[in-house]
Design a protein that fits this description.
Largest sheet: none
Structural class: mainly alpha
Strand content: under 5%
Number of domains: 1
Distance between the termini: 72 Å
Number of strands: 0
Length: 61
């Protein structure tokens, strides 16, 4: 059965460092696995945002 070099590398890496998958799950929980924001909070963020002016390409002067 064929196993690519990348798959072999990842398998060996995980065998040598079994904590990698645990660290990956912790990182995912921090950055991605979050509860959706409430509608009230989303509305509050939109209302408190100050609109930015467009980029100035030419300054008269």
């Amino acid at each position: 059965m064929y196993v690519s070099e990348v798959t072999q590398f990842l398998s060996e890496l995980k065998q040598k460092n079994p904590h990698i998958e645990i660290d990956q799950r912790k990182g995912r929980a921090i950055w991605w696995d979050k509860e959706p924001a409430s509608l009230a909070r989303t509305a509050q963020i939109r209302e408190s945002t100050i609109p930015q002016q467009g980029y100035v390409y030419h300054i008269k002067g």
